Amino acid sequence: MATVHARMSMSLDGFVADRDGGTARLSDPAASSGSEWMTGLIRETGAVVLGRRSFDMAEDPDWYAGNYEFQVPIFVVTHTPPAVLPAENEHLTFTFVTDGIASAVKQARAAAGERAVKVIGASVVRQAVRAGLADELHVLIAPVLLGAGLPLFGDPELDGVTLRRTGVREVGPVTELRFQVLNPL
């Protein structure tokens, strides 16, 4: 059965977006384009659960088909599906899930087979950890301080979650931390 990896990039001071909602300072193009690290992520990923805010970051939703690194089934957690569905291809499909994170993860696990499900987006990462649906937590630490913005872990309901570090890896200037979630809430 697929394992669920909740993953997110954040600044050293814990923000996933700056005060204007931007994420450009958190990205390292060298880590994304054809690196051994990214090739490994792509190979291990069988499905993605994406938050609606993260989905909307693409100015043109049709961009995902053929351009997004994970050409797999994508399950977008949302209250309202878009009026016009984005382009799909033989590998990348979209399902807009309106009945919560548990339903999205269940559907993504079925689609992923033996490969991992990646949960991407601050809100859905917190929801997956809080609901006990995440097996692992992967945090990419960018070497920047944003000072303010959208925090990844500013959720008092996460109090009590225990993690065990399973890996640390340098990916260009970014540091990837991997944890097993030991006691989901």
Automatic annotation (TrEMBL):
User: Which Pfam family, just one, is annotated for this protein?
Assistant: RibD_C
Protein name, entry field? Riboflavin biosynthesis protein RibD
In terms of superkingdom, the source organism counts as Bacteria
Q: Which residues form a coiled coil?
A: none
Q: Where are the transmembrane segments?
A: none
Q: What residues does the Bacterial bifunctional deaminase-reductase C-terminal domain cover?
A: 3-174
Q: Which InterPro entries match?
A: DHFR-like_dom_sf, RibDG_C, Riboflavin_Biosynth_HTPR
